[in-house]
């Protein structure tokens, strides 16, 4: 059967013949509706995506960032939270991953309680604590304002930073609380607690990945677009994975 590659993009591409960059594959996972699409879109497109539909399969976004003079490409795999939209694709998600972002919604404890299942799924695909893992509580703009110290008071119906921090430590993750909706610089403090910007989260991730000394596993070029889009761009795009397997290529570095 021929590959059924569907690809549409909204990249703005500035070619840069001499630039070399490392590419890191990051999968973004968590329950449906926690804001995976909004977070990745916010980082890549710089704005809040007002209307979203449940992701089917995977959406694919990329952003080229610069960390201490080195260009790094973050390839974000925004995966479907709903089981029925994941199914046959799951194996592809977990191949050659450099980092995992576990997302929950700070206003939905059920999405926090769902995290062990996502960790277990990662473990089944051999992604353990040796992989860079960030825990991201999203929708902090919706956190109830409370004059009390949010680290010690459990706000009914919400996941406190303290709970999340304990979970993060127990699972070798770094915790961020953020909002895909908040305006940059608007509301750094939410409910008396600290709120990270979406940019902070992804730049911290890029920094962390940059420091990786050993070459990460190669990124599978499922889309066939990585090579052709190596350059200076950020963008957002969706694709369906090919129906048949593509040969793996080493995209540890690319010459644009
Ligand atoms: N207030 C607020 N709403 C948000 C935020 N992030 C996402 N949302 C809303 O939450 C809903 C779900 O967001 P999505 O980004 O589609 O969630 P998802 O995790 O990608 O969902 P699936 O694709 O089903 O896995 C949408 O209505 C968004 O507008 C946020 O930071 N703050």
From TrEMBL:
Membrane protein topology class: Lipid-anchor
Main subcellular location of this protein, as a coarse class: membrane
SUPFAM superfamilies found in the cross-reference section: P-loop containing nucleoside triphosphate hydrolases
Superkingdom in the source lineage: Eukaryota
TM region(s), chain numbering: none
GO molecular function, one term: GTP binding
CDD domains linked: Rab33B_Rab33A
Keywords: GTP-binding, Lipoprotein, Membrane, Nucleotide-binding, Prenylation
Keyword set includes Membrane: yes
Family of the protein in this entry: Belongs to the small GTPase superfamily. Rab family.
Protein's recorded name: Ras-related protein Rab-33B
Species this chain originates from: Oncorhynchus mykiss
Organism phylogeny: Eukaryota, Metazoa, Chordata, Craniata, Vertebrata
Gene behind this protein: LOC118946768
């Amino acid at each position: 059967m021929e590959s059924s590659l569907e690809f549409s993009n909204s990249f703005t591409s500035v070619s840069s013949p001499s630039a070399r960059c490392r590419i890191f594959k990051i999968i973004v996972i968590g329950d449906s509706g926690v804001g995976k699409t909004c977070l990745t879109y916010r980082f890549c497109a710089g704005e809040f995506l007002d209307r979203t539909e449940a992701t089917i399969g995977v959406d694919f976004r990329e952003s080229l960032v610069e960390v201490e003079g080195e260009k790094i490409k973050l390839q974000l795999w925004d995966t479907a939270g709903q089981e029925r939209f994941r199914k046959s694709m799951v194996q592809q998600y977990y191949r050659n991953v450099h980092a995992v972002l576990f997302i929950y919604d700070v206003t939905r404890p059920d999405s926090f309680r769902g995290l062990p299942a996502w960790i277990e799924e990662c473990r089944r695909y051999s992604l353990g604590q040796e992989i860079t893992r960030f825990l991201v509580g999203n929708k902090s703009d919706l956190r109830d304002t409370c004059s009390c110290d949010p680290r010690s008071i459990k706000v009914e119906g919400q996941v406190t930073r303290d709970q999340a921090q304990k979970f993060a430590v127990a699972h070798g993750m770094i915790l961020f609380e953020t909002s895909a909706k908040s305006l940059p610089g608007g509301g750094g403090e939410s409910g008396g607690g600290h709120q990270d910007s979406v940019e902070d989260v992804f730049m911290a991730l890029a920094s962390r990945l940059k420091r990786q000394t050993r070459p990460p596993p190669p990124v599978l070029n499922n889309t066939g677009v990585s090579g052709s889009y190596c350059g200076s761009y950020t963008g957002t795009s969706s694709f369906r994975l090919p129906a048949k397997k593509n040969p793996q290529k080493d995209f540890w570095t690319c010459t644009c």
